[in-house]
Design brief:
Helix content: under 10%
Shape: elongated
Number of helices: 4
Distance between the termini: 57 Å
Strand content: over 45%
Length: about 260
């Protein structure tokens, strides 16, 4: 319905995103007001940013299914609203879920996807995502599309356990195909009771970990407490272009020791 009401020559990239990525759902009751100046009608309006009052309205939805981009997993059972104002469109998720094939699902709450500057060439979407669920699901989802976050860290989703909460902020181009280099993302991941049945990169076994992982796709900081190779430890790791890691082993006997560099 949104696509039917959206004039084809107005903000084509954003409209194409709706057409390609919104799959199913029920909408309404809502309203959408369209007010276009003459110089935005027809071919002459192509690739021109819309005036702030050209599209105004809000349309609630429920039982929605969509994907931020074709390369990323489908968001299912979503409810929220689509709001048009100030030459921007905002998709607000009150709740939803996303599934990692063969592993399980994670829940989404109070998340947003915003496309500003409607009509301007080179449209970019801004994703503000809050996701919570089993660590194996979050690891599998982090390998979606152009991303390989868990894989790059030696994490095999089937071999890990625990619970996690993820906050992700990403700038995503709305072109037909995107690569990892096209996406700018910052994230914070809190893990509770995390363990891996197989050694992580570096050959170390980790269990009973309560960790915070934050950073970008290129560089991350990891901090918290864990049992490493059977020894309780306090962890402070920086991983990136120049990798370094220090692990403070918390021996209870015969005496505490200083940090060891790994």
């Amino acid at each position: 319905m949104v696509n039917a009401l959206w004039p084809p020559l107005v903000a084509r990239q954003a409209r194409n995103w709706f057409q390609d990525n919104i799959k199913t759902g029920l909408v309404g009751p809502g309203q959408l007001r369209i007010k276009l100046p003459k110089d935005h009608l027809g071919p002459q309006g192509r690739d021109r940013m819309l005036p702030p009052d050209s599209l105004i309205g809000e349309i609630p939805f429920r039982f929605g299914m969509f994907s931020p981009t074709p390369e990323l997993p489908l968001v299912r059972r979503s409810s929220g609203f689509v709001r048009f104002a100030d030459a921007a469109v905002l998709v607000s998720l009150k709740q939803a879920e996303v599934t990692a094939a063969g592993i399980g699902s994670a829940g989404i709450e109070q998340s947003y996807f915003r496309i500003p500057d409607l009509g301007r060439p080179g449209a970019v979407g801004y994703l503000d995502l809050r996701l919570a669920g089993p660590a194996p699901v979050l690891a599998q989802l982090s390998n979606s599309g152009p991303l390989n976050i868990a894989a790059d860290r030696g994490l095999a989703p089937k071999d890990i356990s625990g619970e996690g909460q993820l906050e992700l902020f990403a700038e995503i181009p709305l072109g037909n195909r995107i690569t990892r280099d096209d996406v700018h993302a910052e994230f914070k991941l809190d893990l509770a009771g995390f363990s891996s049945a197989t050694p992580l990169r570096g050959g170390r076994r980790v269990s009973n970990a309560n960790l915070t992982v934050s950073g970008t796709l290129e560089e991350q900081d990891i901090s918290g407490d864990a049992v490493i190779d059977g020894i309780p430890a306090r962890i402070q790791i920086h991983s990136g272009r120049q990798e370094s890691a220090s692990t403070c082993l918390l021996y209870t006997s015969p005496s505490p020791r200083d940090c060891n560099e790994y």
